[in-house]
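Cont'd.
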Amino acid sequence: MKKVILKLKNPVNHSDLRNLSIINTIEINQKNISQIKIFVNRKESIIGKFFSIKISKIKSETNEIEIHGCNKFCHHLGYRWKKDKLFINSDLGFKVGFQMVSGEIKINGSVDHFLGAEMTGGVIYVKGNAGNSVGSSYLGVKQGMNGGEIIIDGHAGDYLGCFMRRGLIIVKGNVGRFCCFAMIAGNVILCKSYKSFLGLLMKRGTVYLMNYNIKNIGAKITKPYDFVEPIFFKYFKKYLKSKYSINLGNSKYKRFYVDRSVDGIGEILVRQN
Amino acid sequence: MVKNSVTLHNTFAEAFPMKASRLIITAYSKKWALEAANSFTGFATSVIACGCEAGIESILNPADTPDGRPGVSLLVFSMSEKELAKQILNRAGQCIMTSPTSALYAGNISEKKINLGKSLRYFGDGFQIAKVIGNKRLWRIPVMDGEFICEEFAYQTKAIGGGNFLILGKTIDALLEASEKAVDEINKIKNVILPFPGGIVRSGSKVGSKYKNLIASTNFEYCPTLRGVIDSKLDNSSNYVLEIVIDGLTEYDIMSAMRAGISSILDSGYKNINGISAGNYGGKLGPYLFWLKKIMS
């Protein structure tokens, strides 16, 4: 397989890199890659004009694409990403991994809004922070993330997992307001604090609160009760440990259902001290 | 071939193609995993009347199971895809879902799916929850001790049934001892099961019967009490015969199991064991022929 290293020659004020995902389907060579069309500073251009391209052979089952020198004005990277590994060694703009299908995106920086929105598969790692609407639906769409996994080492903004239907989101930092708004199914693990209106209009799905604080839940909830670690949780813990080296520990949980105002049976599990 | 006064007959075991699936049961303790597994594999000795042949393949350590609890790996064999699916679903619902603390997972992967949680979930009466973790879809069905976790599908694979060998002995105690030793050795091998009670069968059968509706009847050539009445394959000193039937996923697995079982008898030098033979139907029943001498060479 091949490794492609793209370096942005000069910083840009705005770039739309969604067409870079064509790299999943074309034969990888200097000519094909340099001819991929992108929008830079709102004008159509080609990759070869703004990026230096270096291609080498690697011993791997998938191609690897490494991008350096981008900034928060580089948007739509990993749009409908189908296969291969994509490494970005900088911050990025909005809609990263939007409608991603499969493969892996690793961002060594922070990203803006709509990270992994409407994605259906694959894995996204973010070393820094993420903006609003992580794994949610785009404006006006009623179905958010429908598969795949997002792991954020830093903090995330509002509307995380909004209309989420399937998949897994792990946030190791804090999250903003309206987290899991109208969530349909899936798993969300929040390692630190959250702001108001958690689980509002939530239908199903599971939210794990690793910080034992259960204030500011905007949804109508059932009475919490003690919950000895269920079998599913053991399965889930083993999966997280083997795949992401995340250890959820051996704690007890309190469990309650949300949002009962819409007859929802979404579950919130709160880790106890 | 004679070794330690035990004769290895120049014959072959005849086996036939089957469909199989591997299931993994986990539970709070090894005891309860085994309870569920034993219940599931009960009345699953022969496809002649049980619908399937099933057995415990191995006991799994917590580190080897999907949820980190003690577990048991089962293999289920049947003649058709439809019957295999029916047997697995019925037995999973009645024997595993009902067993305390149990959970059920697929133990193999293939393109042919068998409904497991996909059908059992309706027991949850609307309170069941689906969870997709990685590439697996699990159902969480609320039950009185918490939740029954069940993978959405089991998977069907090609397999072989009817590998066998017969042990001919002078006394029943020597024959049982030798057979049990062979079973112990075969149980160490993966991808095979011995579906009969304790891994041993005394009522070896042949295809068909003088009675119209019976698809199988006693293998009279190896019945010691019929010596003198029919053209028996037993000599005067072979007063007892027991059979070990082996189902496996591949020819290699069955050959390995037969080799392990037969070696354990040949090497041990049992005084009252006369010989080792095999059950076949002249090559008419199945395409797989396991020649004893070839296996032991």
